[in-house]
Design a protein that fits this description.
heterodimer; A: alpha+beta; nine-stranded mixed sheet; five-stranded mixed sheet; 4 helices; globular; B: 346 residues; mainly alpha; Cytochrome Bc1 Complex, Chain D, domain 2; two-stranded antiparallel sheet
């Protein structure tokens, strides 16, 4: 008898669970809204700023003067696991630390729903590259204006990170330039997947703002440590724009981004 | 009388207005035929269907110096039709502000049958290839925003973009698509050699030419493969390295040691017309080229295996064999292509 009661209770609990689920069900939410993505560059546990000295794990002191990256192919995942893909031709952006307006993306025409995670690419994907000019609209113009066209390879810089550095052996300010993009050996595009700490509730009346922290440190000082000092060829500066370092830097980007919080208002 | 004139003027205003409004997409397809002796195309025409207006726009862009920073250097400045779209006589070409590069302007012909472009294969998509010379500081030093602004203020361009593309937009996408259409159409396939290969009238080779073709197949065709005469690979053909330039070739793209001093195997079509030769234009005559292969090959890093037979460098060639090879190479001259009025600047 007791056992049966337990069963009944369990069934009742399940029923309540389902009912409460259906209360929240996305199907009841209709229409479209917008979502805002804020890319907030940080360095480790500090806010990121130009011309500020940061010491990396190689003991190098770096001061950046440029941080730019291409964000592309944004996909939002709902709490039920289904996804919304921002139309490809509207899904290429250049985030530029030096241009405040570029760090806040507002994406329109998002189906109203509760979203739990986001994915986006850093760079321009190979599928797009293989289409040639098709579907690019005027993004090449935008990229050239932003200094993100990689002219020599007829493509894009996916990440541009530049400034000066010193180290125990490089005692005067020496320039560094880190550019990633397609090379003859690797494509160097990376897809970032990150969960939201709380759901982003897109409604006709609510435009959630997703606060993404982008830790610039990870570009050369992440899972893979790239030494500027050992890339300082002939004292002319560390020019990292190809070869084996680019896939390592690309892999580092996987841990560069996290969603700090979501505003639903 | 006065009113009549005014009426006429007003009327003509309306006419010109309505003419402008009626300009729209003119989808007159160009039927692109692959010559029967050619390899397959490496291009997806679905994304950029060839049309007469698209080609016309591409040609206008190709010959328009206003795309460059100094308003003078067009694509056609360094790629001249009668020289099979090379810069005849120029080891290196001069770009904007008389800047000089370090590589010889290659011919533009049969592009759609190739898989990589530029001497080091820096790009693999024909649509995107023009970005390199267009934006290079030592070539056209062009800027997309400036070029688009110029074209938006040019009635002829405004009209052509509307006719060439269904969206009618003047943007970098359509600009590159039109340039691709023009380059795709630059097919050289009617040389004496082609006619020989296709058993057409005018395709009878002389004894020397036939002997040269036979030698070519034995000694050259491993790299200069197929009837477009390139296997699309990158190789070091044993040129002594010029220390003042030290061009590392394909290494620039891959940063692999095994790619140092390798350059794209060029096509040999219209070779009689494309002097000077090699990536740096160091040889002024075909005789000098053949002499290089027979006795000038240098054992530099990554020398191609075909050019090093157990320590013997190069390709052994007698004087008679050189003469026969020369005779064969001249059968690759395609006068029809070099004088085709569809491609001409004027």
């Amino acid at each position: 008898m007791k056992f049966q009661l337990k069963n009944i209770l369990a069934v009742m609990a399940l029923a309540i669970a389902f009912t409460s689920c259906s209360d929240d069900d996305d199907n009841k939410i209709t229409g479209e809204g917008s979502i805002k993505l804020e890319f907030d560059n940080v360095y480790g546990d500090a806010d990121f700023a130009f011309n500020t000295a940061y010491t990396n794990s190689n003991g190098e002191v770096i001061k950046a003067t440029k941080v730019k990256y291409i964000v592309s192919n944004i996909v939002l995942t709902k709490t039920d696991g289904s996804t919304y893909t921002v139309p490809k031709s509207d899904s290429y952006f250049i985030i530029d630390e030096g241009t405040a307006t570029s760090t806040l993306l507002e994406l329109p025409n998002i189906p109203a729903a509760n979203y739990k995670s986001i994915s986006f690419g850093i760079g321009v994907d190979q599928e797009q590259f293989n289409l040639g000019a098709t579907g690019q609209g005027d993004f090449l113009t935008t990229a050239q204006n932003a200094g993100m066209m990689w002219s020599w390879s007829a493509g894009y810089k996916f990440v541009a990170f530049e400034g000066t550095f010193t180290s125990s052996t490089v005692t005067t300010d020496t320039s560094y330039m880190v550019h990633t993009g397609q090379t003859g050996t690797s494509y160097n595009y990376n897809t970032i997947n990150i969960d939201f700490p709380e759901n982003a509730m897109v409604r006709t009346t609510i435009t959630p703002q997703v606060h993404i922290m982008a830790d610039v440190k990870h570009i050369i000082d992440g899972t893979n440590k790239i030494s500027l000092t050992s890339n300082n060829m002939g004292g002319m500066g560390a020019m990292i724009m190809g070869g084996a370092n680019l896939p390592l830097i690309t892999a580092n980007l996987s841990n560069m981004f996290e969603v700090h919080h979501v505003h639903n208002d | 009388m006065k009113t009549k004139i005014i009426l006429l003027l007003v009327f003509s205003l309306f006419l010109s207005c309505s003419n402008d409004d009626s300009v729209g997409y003119e989808n007159i397809p160009i039927d692109f035929q692959v010559p029967s002796n050619f390899p397959p195309v490496n291009y997806d025409f679905v994304n950029n269907p060839l049309t007469e207006k698209g080609f016309e726009l591409g040609k206008k862009l190709f010959y328009d110096g206003r795309l460059s920073s100094d308003g003078i250097i067009s694509c056609g400045f360094c790629h001249i039709q009668e020289d099979s779209f090379t810069h005849h006589g120029h080891t290196f070409s001069h770009g904007v502000g008389d800047a000089i590069g370090t590589r010889n302007a290659p011919p533009i012909q049969n592009m759609v049958f190739q898989t990589a472009f530029m001497w080091d294969g820096a790009t693999t998509h024909l649509d995107l290839q023009p970005i390199i010379p267009f934006t290079s500081e030592i070539e056209m030093h062009g800027n997309f925003a400036d070029a688009i602004n110029m074209m938006k203020n040019d009635a002829a361009y405004v009209k052509l973009y509307k006719q060439a593309f269904s969206d009618g937009e003047i943007n970098s996408e359509n600009m590159l698509k039109a340039l691709a259409q023009f380059q795709i159409m630059l097919v050289s396939s009617n040389s004496k050699f082609d006619k020989y290969r296709r058993n057409e009238i005018g395709g009878t080779l002389t004894t020397d030419e036939l002997a040269g073709y036979s030698l070519f197949n034995q000694k050259c065709a491993s790299c200069h493969a197929t009837d477009i005469f390139t296997d699309n690979s990158f190789r070091n053909n044993g040129l002594p390295i010029n220390p003042s330039i030290n061009d590392i070739g394909r290494f620039r793209v891959t940063e692999l040691d095994e790619d140092k001093y390798k350059f794209k195997v060029p096509s040999l079509r219209n070779i009689e017309k494309t002097a000077p030769y090699m990536h740096d234009g160091r040889f002024y005559t075909l005789e000098a080229v053949l002499n290089h292969y027979s006795s000038g090959v240098s054992n530099t890093q990554n020398l191609d295996a075909y050019l090093n037979n157990g320590g013997t460098l190069g390709i052994p060639l007698s004087e008679i064999e050189k003469m026969q090879l020369m005779a064969f190479l001249k059968t690759l001259t395609d006068t029809e292509f070099l004088t085709d009025s569809r491609f001409a600047e004027f």
